């Protein structure tokens, strides 16, 4: 049985006034229930249920009788409680301590139990909310989605806070207002780890009944290769810099790498971390780039000045045409 039943929207296309008029037409005016349902555009079975409930209620209850469906009659949490639960989940995610599906269902059970709410007995048996509640909660709160988080170290988590970010941008603003760096001189450098083995193999076709299925790779466990990238605010980038965890470096390791890629060996087998100073690479890459751009800018300025001088000389040495000579001789141009 599907967890979410597909129903006909026309079954619920009536309002409170239509249902109340149909109930009164059947109970007070004696109109047949089928005729009253057709006349007021409501479902016959629904009208019959409301007529029985209205007849069984007391006189003082008939004054405030509700002629609309109560879809939230079995709702565990109120809207305010679900909003607070959503806020807690989002706050936990922003603090890099996001809740898993299992932990969220357990939290919902603990929340309902602490507030002495009415919930299904299966929640106590499993000590967690049910799958139906979880699916409905995710559909009602579209700001929450199930995603795979990225591993973040505690050092980076503690270092990334409002005070540290404000200090960084304060220093950046002071340096920018003092030196006026152009966009092509502001670089961002970051490192990442690459593996020479696929983390997950794709699905392949195989015979049925085979318990063990393998896929040939270079190694079962990949070796880490550190890649350092540099990109400026204009979108231009420097070829990557690779660090291999081996004693000696051989050129064939760069087969298939992007043009201009530089690489070194860390000198320690199995250790490709950036534990040593690699500023020489950055200097050797950034300095020629800056010099070449400065030379290009200077060449463009010289070319522009030469073109202006040439145009002025050409204009001064150009002989006047026949109309210009007539105008200069008689003081006016002939009509």
From TrEMBL:
One function term, GO molecular function aspect: DNA binding
Keywords: DNA-binding
Domain of life: Eukaryota
Residue span(s) of domain HTH CENPB-type: 69-147
PROSITE patterns attached to this UniProt entry: HTH_CENPB
Gene Ontology CC entries for this record: nucleus
Family matches, as PANTHER family: POGO TRANSPOSABLE ELEMENT WITH KRAB DOMAIN, TRANSPOSON
UniProt-recorded name of the protein: HTH CENPB-type domain-containing protein
Originating organism: Artemia franciscana (Brine shrimp)
């Amino acid at each position: 049985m599907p967890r979410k039943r597909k129903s006909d929207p026309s079954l619920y296309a009536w309002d409170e006034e239509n249902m109340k008029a149909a109930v009164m037409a059947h109970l007070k005016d004696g109109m047949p229930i089928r005729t009253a349902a057709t006349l007021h555009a409501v479902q016959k079975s629904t009208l019959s249920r409301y007529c029985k409930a209205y007849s069984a209620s007391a006189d003082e209850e008939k004054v405030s009788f509700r002629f609309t469906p109560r879809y939230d009659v079995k709702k565990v949490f109120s809207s305010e409680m679900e909003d607070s639960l959503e806020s807690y989940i989002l706050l936990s995610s922003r603090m890099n301590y996001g809740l898993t599906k299992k932990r969220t269902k357990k939290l919902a059970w603990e929340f309902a139990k602490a507030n002495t709410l009415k919930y299904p007995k299966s929640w106590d048996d499993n000590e967690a909310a049910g799958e139906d509640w979880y699916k409905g909660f995710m559909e009602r709160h579209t700001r929450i989605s199930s995603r795979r988080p990225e591993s973040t170290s505690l050092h980076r988590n503690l270092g990334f806070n409002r005070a540290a970010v404000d200090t960084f941008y304060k220093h950046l603003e002071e340096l920018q207002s003092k030196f006026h760096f152009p966009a092509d001189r502001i670089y961002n450098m970051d490192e990442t780890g690459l593996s020479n083995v696929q983390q997950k193999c794709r699905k392949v076709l195989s015979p049925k009944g085979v318990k063990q299925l393998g896929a040939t790779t270079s190694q079962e466990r990949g070796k880490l290769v550190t890649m350092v990238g540099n990109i400026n605010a204009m979108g231009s980038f420097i070829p990557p810099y690779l660090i291999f965890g081996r004693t000696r470096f051989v050129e064939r390791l760069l087969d298939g790498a992007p043009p201009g890629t530089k690489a070194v060996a860390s000198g320690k087998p199995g250790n490709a971390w950036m534990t040593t100073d690699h500023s020489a690479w950055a200097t050797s890459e950034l300095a020629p780039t800056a010099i070449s751009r400065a030379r290009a800018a200077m060449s463009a300025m010289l070319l522009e000045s030469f073109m202006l001088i040439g145009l002025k000389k050409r204009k001064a040495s150009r002989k006047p045409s026949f109309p210009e000579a007539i105008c200069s001789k008689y003081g006016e141009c002939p009509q």
